[in-house]
Amino acid sequence: MSKLDISQVSSNWKKLQAQLKSDKKPEAHGNGVKRKRPEETQKIVGGFKKPKLAESRPVKRKMGTGGSKQAETGQAAHDRSTLIKEHGIAPEDVSAAYGAVNGTAKRHGDDVNGGLHPTHKAGKYVALDCEMVGTGPPPHSDNVLARASLVNFHGEQIYDSYVLPPPGIKVEDYRTHVSGIKPSHMKPGIARPFAEVQANVANLLAGRVLVGHALKNDLQVLLLSHPKRDLRDTSRHTKFRVESMGKPPALRNLAKSELGMMIQSGEHSSIEDARAAVLLYRKEKVGFEEENRRHFGVSHHRKDKKAVKEKGTPGIGDESDDDAEDEGDEEADLELLAQEDDGTEEVGQGQSVAPQAKRKRKRKKRTKRK
């Protein structure tokens, strides 16, 4: 390509070139080092200058760990008021759970290994939790009862005891970091024989509604059974399985999400776990009972309960509003349901004839007339 002849270029082009040269900034003498960013766009972190670009990157957080301390405090206060107003939990129980020992299920009146409590009554509802130790060949997965604890509907301790291992069985793994059980807890003079603990627990469960978390394991290690319609298992409640995608949730996670309580942060306490289970049941008592009615129908034990009260014998206990419900109209409804289940109806004085038998008789007469 031939070189441009300046004499043939227009004056406008010459003016443009001159203006471009005047607007151009003088170039700095390069020394082979990259130009630094302006000071106002940098931030000193740990003694080193770091670009502000790092501030714009999102901070990675685990789900559920965000939020300030003030927000968490406000949420805890809201949870407390909800438990008191909407779910009918006594304020002293909520304050004992939230405020007494930093939002845990501990209480100052707990008597560890105290056996049967001298004053606290069982009531209609009892919550059970057990601690177990390992035996058998490695990995020592066989469970042996080491501690049994029960609390009543109000979270009061009614029984707690360490348990001696059965004769001829050696404990191989005390699981202290989880169970809180140490070898000194399961020695004669401290722990009670298994048969004694089993009998005491069986007497406390008889005729009562049993609350707990994964109750199958607790009853299995106690070698006891309980009517299924009288079980309220927080690990099987439908609403509590939503966050765990249908799987049995951990009691620790339920206590944190539903009650705002911290439990099992270190060694477990069967008293605290039983208390957390009964608080979960009290919060969702209506849902538990509705679910139980769908599975087992309406209970027919009201008449026996009323007879016990009329005789004046010590009954199964009185909760604040639990035994007073369904007194009048439900008894009549239950009688009607019982009659329908029997398939009979009253005729004359003291006689009853099944409706199906009546229909058969009428059909026979009609056939004879034809």
From TrEMBL:
Keywords: Exonuclease, Hydrolase, Nuclease, Nucleus, rRNA processing. It comes from the Eukaryota. Its main location: nucleus. The keyword Cytoplasm does not apply. It is found in: Nucleus. Exoribonuclease involved in ribosome biosynthesis. Involved in the processing of ITS1, the internal transcribed spacer localized between the 18S and 5.8S rRNAs. This is RNA exonuclease 4. It comes from Friedmanniomyces simplex. The lineage of its organism: Eukaryota, Fungi, Dikarya, Ascomycota, Pezizomycotina.
